[in-house]
Write a structure and sequence with these properties.
2 copies of one chain form a homodimer. Chain A contains 8 helices and 5 strands, in the order H-H-E-H-H-E-H-H-E-H-E-H-E. Chain A has helices spanning 7-15, 30-40, 60-66, 72-80, 97-100, 114-138, 151-158, 189-192; strands at 52-57, 83-90, 142-146, 164-173, 193-195. The first copy, chain A, is globular and about 50 Å long. Chain A starts with 6 loop residues before the first helix and ends with a strand. Strand 5 of chain A pairs parallel with strand 1 of chain B.
Chain lengths: 196, 196
């Protein structure tokens, strides 16, 4: 049985962290991205299916390839972010279950069932995307997650020859806090939850 | 610019936390569930759309209602968990955008576009489900997330008269660490990520 983490940690990963649109000119080292993936992959997925596939767009050449697929409002800020993570999900994830969930034939739960494959890949790939957001914040990075882009174009240019589909994007770096707007309103407890 | 959180916090939310199947006989107070929702709702969603709806199944009557919808492997452990959270997503989420994203007409981005409504509700509702897992761990709770249940049955018995659809379940409580099995294998960095 564990105690709660310190309030400074809750503040950093939830209470005071914000979605950033403006970035300081400060590099995100590759070693930190490796450390981030080492956190993300430990988060729970159903049958440990781990469908998320992550491309960290960091070089100018990779950014140039991403740029035309971004919605206008996401273009400039993403070009200025040190890194943009493309979070995708692999519809072939179940082929890896003999390795990831070795104690039973979990592959057979999915093979041939397209709806279940999609639901599982999208749900669990998105869970892993959230672990990336929270994990990045815990490592001292700021995040700018985005849905506004041409998914089909990104799939064609970044995931050709695979069955990976893009899910969402997340800029990563050190945000310029001076450029933040006030936080948008949130629901009260009763508007989103109930104890039965 | 923030520093990384302490390693004890990273350990608690990612490195040492595990999916639990056996629960200590220890209550989860309602006040802690309120505090959990106060964390979950701060996590980012696109256009602050906040589609997750959460039912905390805690009373015996509510558990009895949930029981027949659980897959056999999830039944007993869920009945013994102090709380089972039903995480759903509201396909009518965009009706709340005038409140949640008041500075523009975001409702019109969704109304009438069923595919975009589904994608946005499922993606962002799942992100919020992951915030619930991580937030619960940060508050000292253990989690047991599950996909094995009859979604349509749960929707009928718990979300009748709404446009909320069940996404996944998550048992919450204080896990019995003595009953844990070894962690399943994870991918190496190169199997799930690349820096471009």
């Amino acid at each position: 049985m564990t105690e709660r983490v310190k309030d400074t940690c809750l503040d950093q990963i939830f209470r005071e962290s914000r979605t950033h649109n403006a970035w300081l000119d400060k590099d995100v080292p590759d070693a930190l991205l490796h450390e981030l993936v080492d956190l993300v992959k430990l988060g729970p997925t159903s049958a440990n299916c781990s469908p998320a596939r992550i491309l960290f767009v960091k070089s100018q050449a990779a950014k140039d390839k991403l740029k035309p697929h971004l919605s206008e409002g996401n273009r400039d800020k993403t070009m200025k972010a040190p890194v943009c993570a493309i979070i995708g999900y692999d519809l072939d994830f179940y082929e890896h279950l003999p390795k990831l969930f070795p104690h039973t034939d979990a592959r057979s739960w999915f093979a041939g069932n397209e709806q279940k494959i999609f639901d599982t890949a999208f749900r669990n790939g998105t869970l892993q995307g959230a672990y990336l957001i929270v994990g990045a914040r815990a490592l001292g990075l700021d995040c700018g997650p985005m849905s506004g882009f041409d998914n089909k174009g990104v799939d064609r240019d970044f995931f050709a020859g695979t069955n990976v589909k893009s899910n969402f994007l997340c800029n990563l770096g050190y945000g310029d806090g001076a450029k933040l707007l006030p936080r948008s309103p949130r629901f009260a407890f009763d508007e989103m939850a109930r104890i039965l």
